[in-house]
Amino acid sequence: MPNVNAVQMLISRDPQETIVAPSIGSGIAVVIYDPQVPAGGILHFLFPDSTAMDRENAERYPYAYADTGLSLFLEQAYACGMQKRNLRIVLAGGAQTVDPPTFLNFGKRNLEAATKILNEQDLIITGSEVGGHATRTIRLKIGDGTISLDTRGQGARSL
Amino acid sequence: MIDLKSMIAQIDFLTPMPRVVNQVMELADDPDSSLADVAEVIQYDPVITANMLKTCNSAYFGLPRVINSIHDATMLLGLDQIVELFIFRCAFENLNQPQEGYDLKEGELLKQSVASALVSKSIAEILQPPNKHLIFTAALLKDIGKVVMARYVADSFDQIDSMVQNQRLSFIEAEKQVLGLDHAEIGGLIAKRWGFSPLMTDIIRNHHLIDAAARDDQPTAIVYMADHICMLLGLCTGADGMAYQFYDEILERLQLTEEMVNTVMVAYLANRPKVEALMNLS
Q1: Would you kindly state where each structural domain of chain B is located, as residue ranges?
Q2: What is the pTM of this model?
Q3: A101 CB-near residues (< 8 Å, 6+ apart)
Q4: What is the CATH architecture assignment of B99-282?
Q5: Domains and CATH numbers, chain A
Q6: Taking CB atoms and an 8 Å limit, are A24 and B234 in contact across chains?
Q7: Which residue of B has its CA nearest to A24?
Q8: What is the phi/psi pair of residue A34, to 5°?
Q9: Greatest CA span in chain B, whole angstroms?
């Protein structure tokens, strides 16, 4: 079962495969799936905007940021045969502390960034499980597109 | 309400820390001491020495020859790595156990603690405080209180969780209200029982900065910031998750910018394979 850790992404066309993104905190896991291929993938980014960060880090870890990460992720998804009109898109993560800070509130800002970028590209978010304080793990079965979410302290459920 | 005396008595069931810990910490942060001084103290503890040599000779370090003494190890690895390895081995037995109340499986609390220590080290590299080994050690041991609290939290989890969800309390505030003590306070009592320095004891007891006076203490603020960064990274994977308070003022007091925080987070991610390897060889 291949893992997608923070600042990584993975796309698969192997129907036997289940992709797992563990330990999603304030970052966001963007899950995409095209049932027609079938193929799918997960991107796990941590920060909303690469342009506000150190350039060397931004170039070294493009999947760390909503803007550069989503752009590359979608580019590779289309190259793998997935089509925009077929995509199911699910977001998970964006956890926050109690009384979130005005600064460093990555959970909220990451969610806003992902939503804005996907909207700009006319991509519809078909499901989400975001906010709160809990760490999450999300799984995508490439064979049938089943997405399951495990929230620490609350157990697992399908999305 | 829980019988606090019986809870505190559980401290005696922890694996005790080696007696040499305080000496090693003092020497490590003393600019006038040498590598040989540190090695000299460590080697008086045979269990820790044996465990450290085992780890030194593993593929993780990839050293060019077999190491048979702490003196040889210090020469090859240098002070920082020897002290970090020493503290890791000291904390291993207690932190590696599963902690049911916090929904942490075997090895998870240890891994979180190592991550927190490494992140605090990165922050210390930016801020250059005089006592970086003390900060590393306090970050590694800050959640030692969870080892005692876990079974009490398990018994009262629904009540604690309900307070977090419905009353907007942090997990640690809810712990205190339901159980009478929180994991940081128990951690402070453990540190005191183990004879740690007052500075170390205070950092562990105040690592969530509930006491506003502790926010002015730079080492405590660094350990707190490291904990928060681990939460942002999704590394604090227990049932308490991110249900803690973040105080904006800490960034200003430490003079940390968002870009610096980003650099620290990315530095941890670059070290992630090393952390995994360290966990696996244990």
Answers
A1: 16-95, 99-282
A2: 0.90
A3: B246, B247, B248
A4: Orthogonal Bundle (1.10)
A5: 8-158 (3.30.1330.200)
A6: yes
A7: B234
A8: -115, 105
A9: 58
